[in-house]
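2-dehydro-3-deoxyphosphooctonate aldolase structure dump, as promised
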Amino acid sequence: MLNDSAIWKSLNSPSRLSLIAGPCAIENEKLCLRIAASLKKTCDKLGINYIFKASYDKANRTSNQSFRGLGLENGLQILARVRTDIGVPVLTDVHTEQQVAAAAEVVDALQIPAFLCRQTDLIAAAAKTGKIVNVKKGQFLSPQEMGNVVKKAEAAGTKKICVTERGTTFGYNNLVADMRSIPIMSRFGYPVIFDATHSVQLPGGGGDKSSGQREFAPVLARCALIAGANGVFIETHPDPEHALSDGPNMIPLAEMPRLLANLVKVHTLAREAK
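structure tokens r here:
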């Protein structure tokens, strides 16, 4: 498996597509290992830089009746198993400064959730670990405002920063993906990732849960690569209809090889067209 410097270098490579992907929440160890192994096989074949993603806690679910995950301790144990057994870098969300140190002992990259992207102390804590920090743009922020978020991470002593577009609030229960945000955030000098599956989420659209339109995720992913994104973020599951979190957004695992092969072609064409 790549070390921290090699992972960061791969994310900055203009010649290879980067993918952050996995299930929304850690449901169990078997699921995570299955998804990671499948995606690694596909990404190795296609020459994609792959980072596995799953959350030990979904702290901002619509309802307190919704599944949140297995918790910090159990979740990190599973992520460690994925990292060692499958041999892929691992990313997970952190929600408080207290979680950062424990997560940084296990994972290769820390993610600041969109709703927490302005939490200065959380960003600083993540940055000070020396790990790659992926900050999702809040649904309530313009892409220009993410420049201030990047400066917070830089002030804490890191240059290993990614920014992720995941859609902007568009009225009630809807998001819109503005592709202008890709070149705008690229001006900050760091890799820009496009979150294809959360961008088709319909927040709260299911009443006590969010809904989504997964059929549009591939369309937006292709658009983002043409717009200059370094990589894509995609949540996937063998059976999205029975997933415990964000099922309506997620791409069925069986469809990922074909989708990724298509995205590699789009990524190549986008670079050749520059």
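The domain at 4-273 is CATH 3.20.20.70 (TIM Barrel).
lmk if u need the other ones
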